[in-house]
Amino acid sequence: MTVVTTSSWGLPFTEHDLAALPDDGRRHEIIDGVLIVTPSPVTVHQRCVVRLLAVLFPACPEGLEVLVAPFDVRLADDTVIQPDVLVCRRADLTDSNLPVAPVLAVEVLSPSTRLIDLNLKRSRLERAGCRSYWVVDPEVPSLTAWDLVEGAYVEVGRVQGGEVFEPALPYPVRVVPGALVA
Fold first, then answer.
1. Which residues, 6+ apart, have CB-to-CB distance to 58 below 8 Å?
2. For the chain, percent of residues with pLDDT exceeding 90
3. Residue 11 pLDDT grade (very low, low, confident, very high; cuts 50, 70, 90)
4. pTM of the model as a whole
5. Alpha carbon of 59 to those of 90, 169, 172: distances in Å?
6. Span 51-76, mean pLDDT?
7. How many beta carbons lie within 10 A of that of residue 8, not counting itself?
8. Where are the alpha helices (DSSP H) in the chain?
9. What integer is the mean pLDDT of 35-47?
10. How many Cα neighbours within 13 Å face the side chain of 39?
11. Closest CA to 30 of 96, 71, 75, 69
12. How many angstroms separate the CA atoms of 118 and 122, rounded?
């Protein structure tokens, strides 16, 4: 993972700088003007994403949509992220991105992104008003979930292995962390 704090002009990165970067197969995101570049995900990461999509998609109610990275969530001029999985209101989508916080953002942890996902992204999504934030740790395997309550994230679930997570938000589903990596 590479973290760059200013552009070549010495200024914080913006969505315009992001658009000018080459398509090199890596994930490019900016959080509060800081460029974060991560390599392509490994097999277990992609397995978790696909299996989580298989859980979320069939239960998704009309008016919402489930999407996977790479897909830009534009929270501000200086913050464009790509959650591994997201659920958003269809009415909020543009042809090219989601210009508001999703109702659910999910990150699958990897060694290179663990601190960013658990701290920077979580904090930035909380400030943006993302209703629910989940992280899946394929190493344990486990899932931790937070819901936004009065402007702050409150942990609403922590399960591992064969334990079942059944959230109310963004809609009822049944997630078993061990099944996401098996």
1. none
2. 81
3. confident
4. 0.93
5. 15, 12, 7
6. 97
7. 7
8. 15-20, 43-59, 114-115, 122-128, 177-181
9. 92
10. 8
11. 75
12. 6
